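Reviewer 2 asked us to include a model.

Predict the structure of this chain.
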Amino acid sequence: MSRMSRSWGSQDVVDEEEEGRGRGKYKKYKKYMMPLLLAYKLKFFTLIPVLIGGLVLLTGATGLAGFFFALFAATMGLKGGGGDH
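Predicted model (structure tokens):
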């Protein structure tokens, strides 16, 4: 049995066998879709802790640099001992 279909190509008649082949491809790729989608979701679960860890390191390094800058400024201020100003 064949049915008529409108298509952009030159073929006007689509056999049911050809439709079956398309579904076979869908079933073949369907078994790969779930693992790919899970891997895509797991990417975000691993990305968030990495970003938080990087933010903590950046904050820690900035705080440490600020501490040493304040220590340096205090030592320079005490070392100067006041001038003629």
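DSSP finds one helix and two strands in the chain. Residues 3-7+11-78 form one domain. We have added this to the supplementary material.
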